[in-house]
Amino acid sequence: MADQETAHRESGETPTELKRVLGPKLLLLFIVGDILGTGVYALTGDIAAEVGGAAWAPFLVAFAVALLTAFSYLELVTKYPQAAGAALYTHKAFGIHFVTFLVCFAVMSSGLTSASTASQAFALNLDTGFTLDLGRGSFGIQAISLGFMLLVMLVNLRGVAESVKTNVVLTMIELSGLLLVILVGLWVIVGGDADWGRVVAFETPEDKSIFLAVTTATSLAFFAMVGFEDSVNMAEETHDPSRIFPKIMLTGLGITGAIYILVSISAVAIVPVGDLAQADSPLSLVVKTGAPDLPFGDLFPFIAMFAVANSALINMMMASRLLYGMSKQRVLPPFLDRVHRKRRTPWASILFTTALAFGLIVYVNTLNEDNVAILGGTTSLLLLAVFTVVNVAVLVLRRDPVDHHHFRAPTPLPVIGALACAYLVLPVSGRVGEQYKIAGILLAIGVVLWAITWFYNRALRADRTFVRDPNDLN
Hints:
By secondary structure, this protein is mainly α.
């Protein structure tokens, strides 16, 4: 018994119904696989359009902001090694049920906008791969996006046994596409055909300073860095989380940050910024231009389709399960907790989240703007708001000691992280108004659902609306 108590103090491993199967290698692959995906495949051209050839700069800044927030997550996940994430940390820090709900609903909404971004990227890559020439914002792209989301819904309804080993395979395929871009870049550099002048050239829109252009592009590039925070939900399935998580999460962020910077440098060194910004599948154009005699350029759109499809499925699964969890907590209407008898999947939440995603896709296709950039920027907006709260929460929770060893972030890091995330949420960072509009509508839907549930609980059940157990939200 004494040995078990000593082990608990050292590792923070608390009793759990889940099986601890993740060691350092599998956890690293999970983190890298969760970060890689739609962002870099879809938004490299949009980022280059904001800052010119220095497209690596926004990725570097986004990596720095993500790294600051990762330190806060590391302190919290090693302090509270439970599968709940931001909702748990917010609830422990502030104890305000409505704030906990808003954080959880914001995370859920980010899953919807991320999956909708992936659906647009999927349609554009399919358009490029089969040379359909439908064009951005066309009815054809919208139809493909909706059809793709319908397929994701059907897979989600059927039930997906997401195992870590499957995630390893998917990660390798996603990673192969990005490594291909880097290898093509090296090939062009060795051949002396790279234009290094473009790589250090800041070309900003006429109405923006370099600083504003970089922060605007960073708000897009941050979409490519998110995903590391999902790993905290694996805490109860990780061996010795207090020891393993710090080294592995920081390593995973470092690997993905390096890949993104190398990809962006390769892209602008090979393809002129104007062409890159207008391409439906920018990295496909990079591969075709850098290695025109090889078949990789024709295959690349299909690799990109696979990468974004995996991101969409994971995000829609997350969103539907979060909605289901909130309904089970009775902070959302009870009809959303219906489960299919045979498949044991939360069909009501799946249908509801798919309907919201459909609405997002149809809405952004009515705009005369870049749909992928708007939805990707909205995703980063929602998550940066959540990260601001998490960075504050880690400081508040310093007054809550625990009886095991855990990681402790240097105090200036969460302070700087909170300020950086909050700045990137504000309009002064260069965000477009449509991102706030979409985020506001989604959160308003959540507030309306909360209000309906409050009335239902008060009038029919003589009960109050509150988060009963934050651990069951995620």
